[in-house]
C-alpha cells in the first residue's frame, strides 16, 4: 500500500455555490498500473471508512482476495468531510487560522464525486476500468458515472440508492439530534459532541443490522438477569469505538450529504439521470437490508441502460455488503468475466 496526498491548486466550487480553498485529498494505491491502463479498480468508501480499502473490505480486497495488487491497480480516496486526511471540519480555515468546525461549507455526494474527478485528472487516468462502492460509497460511484459516463467502463453498486429515502433521512436526523443535544458540539473543540456521537452510532447500528442479528448475537442466556444486558453493552462498545476514531463534526456533515443525495437534481429527474450512465453495471441488493431495501437497487438496475441486478441473503442486514465477501466475489467475478451485457434491462440473479 502507498499513501498519497493531492492538493488542488484552485478553489473548489461546491454544488451549493460555496467555495472550499486548499482542498487536500488523501488516497491510497495498491498494486501497479499496467501498460494498457486497464486494470484500475477505483473504490468509493462509505460513511466512516477510510482510504485503506484492504483494512475495511477484507475478503474482497486483499493480497489473496479477488481484487488484489498482483493483478489490479486499486485506488481509494478519502472523501471530503472525512477525518482521515482529506479536508474536513477539523481542517484549518485559512480565513481564520482556526478549524472550521460548524462553519465548514455544506457539501453533497455530487461534490464527493467531483473530487474523485479531480484526483483522476491529477493521476492522468482517462478511463476507470471498474468503479465500485456500497452505501454512501455507492452514492459517489453513481454520481460519478452520471457526471462522466465516458470515463467509467464498469460500475458495481451495492446496498445503495439513487435518492436517499425519507426512512434513511429520518435515521440520520435522529443521529444529528443526538449529536446536537450534546452541548459540547458547539464548543469548537476537536472532541466536541463526543457523547452525542456515541449515541448517534448506537442509533445507526439499528439500521445496519436486523432484529434477527441482535436476537442471535445479543440474546441473554441468563433468565434471571434484570440489568447490564449484552445488547446494552454492545451498543455502548460500538459507540465508544467510533468516538475514538472519528469526530462529531465530520459525522454531522457527512450525514447531511447523504440526505441530499438525489441524482435527479438538475437533470430533469432520477430516471433521466440514470439513463445517462454508459458503464456496464452490476447492482447488488441485500434482502435483509432495512436501510437500503432491495427495491431501491432494483430501481437503479431497471433504469440504467446496461445493468443487471443480483440479490443476496445476509444475516447481517445492510452490513452484509462488507461481510458477505465470499458470495459477493462469486457474483462480481461472473459479472466481470462477461464481455458485454446484451439486455438493456436488469436480469435478476438469486444467490
From TrEMBL:
Residues forming the catalytic site: 135, 289, 318
Matching Pfam families: Abhydrolase_1
EC numbers: 2.3.1.31
Record's subcellular location: Cytoplasm
Signal peptide: none
Catalytic class of the enzyme: transferase
Residue ranges annotated for the AB hydrolase-1 domain, each copy included: 41-322
Binding-site residues for substrate, renumbered to this chain: 201, 319
InterPro entries: AB_hydrolase_1, AB_hydrolase_fold, HAT_MetX-like
Protein keywords: Acyltransferase, Amino-acid biosynthesis, Cytoplasm, Methionine biosynthesis, Transferase
Pathway(s) the chain acts in: Amino-acid biosynthesis; L-methionine biosynthesis via de novo pathway; O-acetyl-L-homoserine from L-homoserine: step 1/1
UniProt GO molecular function: homoserine O-acetyltransferase activity
UniProt-listed Gene3D superfamilies: alpha/beta hydrolase (3.40.50.1820)
UniProt similarity note: Belongs to the AB hydrolase superfamily. MetX family.
PANTHER family: HOMOSERINE O-ACETYLTRANSFERASE
Known partners and oligomeric status: Homodimer.
Function: Transfers an acetyl group from acetyl-CoA to L-homoserine, forming acetyl-L-homoserine.
Protein name (database record): Homoserine O-acetyltransferase
Organism, as annotated: Albibacterium profundi
Amino acid at each position: 500500500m502507498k499513501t498519497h496526498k493531492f492538493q488542488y491548486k484552485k478553489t473548489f466550487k461546491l454544488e451549493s455555490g460555496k467555495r472550499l480553498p486548499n482542498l487536500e485529498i488523501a488516497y491510497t494505491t495498491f498494486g501497479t498500473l499496467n501498460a494498457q491502463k486497464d486494470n484500475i479498480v477505483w473504490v468509493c468508501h462509505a460513511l466512516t471508512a477510510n482510504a485503506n480499502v484492504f483494512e475495511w473490505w477484507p475478503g474482497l480486497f486483499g493480497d489473496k482476495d479477488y481484487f488484489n495488487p498482483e493483478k489490479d491497480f486499486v485506488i481509494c480516496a478519502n472523501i471530503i468531510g472525512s477525518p482521515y486526511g482529506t479536508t474536513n471540519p477539523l481542517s484549518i480555515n485559512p480565513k481564520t487560522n482556526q478549524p472550521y468546525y460548524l462553519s465548514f461549507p455544506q457539501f453533497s455526494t455530487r461534490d464527493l464525486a467531483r473530487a474523485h474527478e479531480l484526483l483522476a485528472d491529477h493521476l492522468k487516468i482517462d478511463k476507470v476500468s471498474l468503479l465500485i462502492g456500497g452505501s454512501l460509497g455507492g452514492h459517489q460511484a453513481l454520481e460519478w458515472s452520471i457526471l462522466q459516463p465516458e470515463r467509467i467502463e464498469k460500475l458495481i453498486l451495492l446496498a445503495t440508492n439513487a435518492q436517499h429515502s425519507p426512512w434513511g433521512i429520518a435515521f440520520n436526523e435522529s443521529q444529528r439530534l443526538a449529536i446536537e443535544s450534546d452541548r459540547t458540539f458547539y464548543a469548537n473543540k476537536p472532541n466536541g459532541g463526543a457523547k452525542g456521537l456515541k449515541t448517534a452510532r448506537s442509533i445507526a447500528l439499528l439500521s445496519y443490522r436486523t432484529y434477527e442479528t441482535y436476537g442471535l448475537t445479543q440474546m441473554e442466556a441468563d433468565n434471571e438477569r434484570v440489568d447490564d444486558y449484552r445488547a446494552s453493552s454492545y451498543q455502548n462498545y460500538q459507540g465508544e469505538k467510533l468516538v475514538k476514531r472519528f469526530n462529531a463534526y465530520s459525522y454531522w456533515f457527512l450525514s447531511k450529504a447523504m440526505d441530499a443525495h438525489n441524482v435527479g437534481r438538475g437533470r430533469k429527474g432520477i430516471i433521466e439521470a440514470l439513463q445517462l450512465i454508459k458503464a456496464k453495471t452490476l447492482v447488488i441488493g441485500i434482502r435483509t437490508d432495512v436501510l437500503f431495501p432491495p427495491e431501491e437497487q432494483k430501481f437503479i438496475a431497471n433504469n440504467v441502460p446496461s445493468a443487471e441486478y443480483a440479490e443476496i441473503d445476509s444475516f447481517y442486514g445492510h452490513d452484509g455488503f462488507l461481510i458477505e465477501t465470499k458470495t459477493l466475489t462469486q457474483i462480481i467475478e461472473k459479472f466481470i468475466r462477461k464481455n458485454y451485457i446484451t439486455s438493456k434491462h436488469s436480469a435478476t440473479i438469486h444467490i
